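[09:14] KT: can someone run the structure on this one? pasting the chain below
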Amino acid sequence: MICAYTEDRWEDVLAAVASVRAQSRPALETLLVVDHNQVLLDRLVEEYQDTDDVRVLANAGPRGLSAGRNTGIAASRGEIVAFLDDDAVAERDWLSHFAEGYADPRVMAVGGRTEPVWASGRRPGWFPEEFDWVVGCTYRGLPRGRVRVRNVLGGNASFRRSAFDAAGGFATGIGRDGDKRPLGGEETELCIRLSRARPDAVLLIDDRAVIHHRVPQAREHFRYFRTRTYAEGLSKALVARSVGAGKGLESERRYTTRVLPAGVVRGLRDALLARPGGAGRAGAIVAGVLTAAGGYVVGSVRARRGGVTFSVVDVGGEARRAGVRPGEEQGDAHGRRD
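[09:31] RB: done, structure tokens below
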């Protein structure tokens, strides 16, 4: 599934679809979900009108990535649903590596590795690999190989269809909404909710399942870095409010106490050895931690005051049989469903 929202990424969307259609293990179908953009919807319908394996859908829920994904999940026909960002291309064996993970019936989700493709041609010297999640990519500190994880990363991930039957869909009110503040966390919240609904569930990352994600030039600047880290703090506060700080911040504690201090030391060492960018990378790590912490505090206050809510919809078999459209079933700020 590929969710799209802007004509500015037209060529990227076509490239993403082409990479899925070229897989060594063919997809049953490719779902293109358009987020409240009639012009883009019409263009894509016309582009793929003679293509049997591509279906173009309009987001049937509220504006945003989560509702778009829920629309695609509800319409999907396969037993495994894979997600690809609209500005990324998948390597030829991407789906094949995902499929291998599902040989174990306990596996409910498999994610992959996302490599950045910098618009300027190379990584900015000050940009630490520990913060590649800022641009939607795999970051230094994630385990290598095929390993069990708390959550997969949404732009390069797959789930069993039955995972959504058990846990519901992506929570709306969290995550991306076009070009607005770059929030995230919706896949983390879903994965934790899934693990609670199915305590025996296994979630994996297989770093052989590779996609290449385009990083536009605007995201290579410190201003975006600061905005995105602050937004991540806001998102983590909402996730913690939903599932509790214990699970909601479990991986983040290791990241902030082990991975990031090592990154600062590495940057300072590089600076002492007169290697370019070392001091900048160390400073960016410190700045990223502080802005994310600030966002978390603000988000926590808002959540306690009831200023932020989100909804979890049923996109499972019962909803499909009953004809429920994504977005019709609402939940409160704790992700409950009535």
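[09:33] KT: thanks! Residues 318-338 have pLDDT under 50 and may be disordered.
[09:34] RB: yep, looked fine to me
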